[in-house]
């Protein structure tokens, strides 16, 4: 295995590949930001229309939806990779085979989910102490069955790297879902209204996605094109990815199930509040990774390994700087953010947020290796890391929740995420990158972490010197002022330290200048630039 020097792989953004990657990332940022902002804004509204117990039950039902979607054995995860690879050579015959084979499979899977889901309804609800939810359970199953088909069609746009189209559809559907949520909750339908809105939104999303796909990609066909051999090959790839998706369930959802079983369904509401906020923090840097699978899949199809390695190091570096800053600032101001977001009554969520922010942040740091591994057809790295996570997380969470309650479950998740991330990076560097793991840790991760720690100390020290700033958090409408002051101290200290530690170089400044120039040109002539990039 070659061992290229890290310095030789540093790169500036150049060429059509970089433009497409940055543009797709921009549209993913737009779509994800809209989705998470809506989710954050809706949470307080929903809490005013549901009891704490009903909100906890709704969270658990949402977990069931995600769990049932795992029954596709990873097929959904293979769509982006295969369509991207075929699209690199404009092989629409195979793309159409992928689409129809997926439609056939997900149609049958939808029937299976509804039938089996109804058979296990009573023991499932009893196991997690969910009461008064049987009237919405069928609607939850139906939503899952329909959403799977819509998500599969949406993956076609992602596979051909048209994130502008996929995110445009998702933003429109988010708005429709919000309107439906408000109308049905104001009508007094409660949890049943949320479930009904889920079904209606899933149907509209399916119709809109199919119509847009036919209009924008004329060569796509939904006609009979079943290919059993191709479907089997996709399953072979997808099964490895499905292990990672199952690990995602264990990592980001199982702790809520453990809390429900150990502490009752009402406790899930406070845990969910913490998880939603930290998930929003996690989503921002993850957007920087969201375009990597189709992009590196295209590079893999062209055997451009050197560009894959350069992309890995560059993206890892920028993701690390953003992730550490966000996680550190959230740990610092968790109490103020909760008070601003939800008001009084959710103080017990603050410690959970601080613990989960560390674990979720660590998880993001391994995201580049995970996404590039999947893009180049090597999902086994993430699969092995996920198996470790799936074993360690429940053991630690169950053990710690008995002694420390909900913070124990959060701590178990945090420790498991850190362990799995370190393992993922070690095996990815050893078996694919050919670059020293410890050199990468030193050059990419250590300096942002140290800078974040010093920046946090700087803000805390300022609060000691000027106690009136911290006191602003006692008045809800003054909290934005406190957050602004804290940010005004944290950000320059963090940036100056990154420069002093040579984490930010001349190359990064050139990248920033290119990005600004490209962004301004894109904003001035969005249609022309989209045509040039997606031609």
Describe the structure.
The chain has 22 helices and no strands. The protein is mostly helical and 535 residues long. The protein folds into two domains: 17-24 and 31-242, no CATH class; 253-448, no CATH class. Helix 3 crosses helix 12 (292-301), helix 6 (134-159) runs parallel beside helix 8 (190-216) and helix 13 (305-342) runs antiparallel to helix 20 (479-500). The protein starts with 14 loop residues before the first helix and ends with a helix. Mean pLDDT is 81; it is low at 1-17.
The pLDDT mean sits at 81
For the termini, the CA-CA separation is 37 Å
Residues in β-strands, percent? under 5%
Helix content: over 70%
Give the low-confidence spans. Answer: 1-17
* Secondary structure tally: strands: 0
Nutshell version of this structure?
It contains 22 helices and no strands. With 535 residues, the chain is mainly α.
């Amino acid at each position: 295995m070659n061992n290229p020097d890290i310095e030789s792989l540093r790169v500036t953004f150049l060429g059509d590949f970089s433009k497409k990657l940055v543009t797709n990332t921009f549209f993913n940022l737009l779509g994800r930001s809209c989705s998470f902002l809506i989710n954050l804004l809706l949470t307080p509204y929903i809490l005013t229309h549901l009891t704490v117990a009903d909100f906890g039950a709704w969270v658990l039902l949402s977990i069931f939806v995600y769990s049932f979607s795992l029954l596709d054995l990873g097929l959904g995860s293979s769509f982006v990779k295969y369509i991207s690879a075929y699209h690199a050579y404009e092989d629409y015959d195979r793309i159409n085979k992928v689409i129809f084979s997926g439609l056939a499979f997900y149609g049958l899977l939808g029937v299976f989910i509804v039938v089996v889901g109804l058979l296990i309804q009573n023991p499932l609800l009893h196991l997690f102490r969910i009461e008064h939810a049987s009237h919405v359970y069928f609607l939850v199953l139906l939503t899952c069955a329909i959403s799977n088909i819509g998500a599969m069609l949406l993956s076609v746009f992602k596979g051909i790297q048209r994130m502008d189209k996929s995110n445009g559809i998702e933003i429109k559907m988010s708005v429709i879902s919000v309107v439906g949520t408000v109308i049905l909750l104001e009508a007094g339908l409660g949890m049943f209204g949320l479930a009904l809105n889920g079904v209606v939104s899933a149907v509209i999303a399916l119709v809109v996605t199919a119509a847009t796909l036919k209009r924008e990609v004329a060569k796509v066909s939904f006609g009979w094109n079943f290919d059993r051999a191709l479907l089997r090959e996709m399953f072979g790839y997808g099964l490895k990815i499905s292990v990672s998706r199952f690990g995602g369930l264990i990592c980001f959802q199982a702790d809520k199930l453990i809390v429900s079983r150990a502490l009752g369904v009402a406790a899930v509401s406070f845990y969910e509040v913490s998880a939603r906020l930290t998930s929003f923090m996690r989503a921002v840097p993850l957007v920087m990774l969201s375009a990597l699978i189709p992009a590196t899949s295209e590079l893999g199809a062209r055997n451009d390994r050197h560009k894959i390695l350069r992309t890995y190091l560059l993206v890892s570096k920028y993701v690390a700087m953003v992730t550490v800053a966000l996680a550190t600032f959230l740990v610092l101001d968790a109490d103020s953010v909760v008070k601003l977001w939800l008001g009084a009554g959710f103080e017990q969520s603050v410690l959970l947020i601080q613990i989960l922010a560390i674990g979720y942040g660590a998880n993001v740091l391994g995201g580049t290796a995970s996404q590039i591994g999947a893009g180049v057809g090597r999902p086994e790295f993430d699969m092995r890391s996920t198996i470790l996570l799936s074993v360690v997380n429940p053991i630690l969470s169950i053990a710690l929740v008995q002694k420390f309650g909900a913070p124990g479950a959060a701590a178990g998740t945090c420790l498991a995420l850190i362990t799995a991330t370190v393992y993922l990076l070690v095996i990815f560097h050893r078996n694919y990158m050919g670059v020293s793991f410890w050199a990468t840790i030193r050059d990419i991760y250590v300096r942002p972490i140290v800078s974040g720690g010093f920046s946090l100390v700087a803000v805390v020290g300022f609060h000691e010197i000027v106690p009136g700033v911290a006191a602003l958090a006692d008045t809800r409408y003054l909290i934005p002022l406190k957050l602004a002051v804290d940010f005004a101290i944290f950000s320059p200290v963090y940036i100056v330290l990154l420069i002093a530690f040579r984490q930010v170089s001349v190359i990064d400044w050139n990248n920033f200048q290119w990005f600004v120039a490209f962004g301004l040109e894109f904003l001035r002539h969005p249609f022309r630039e989209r045509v040039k990039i997606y031609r």
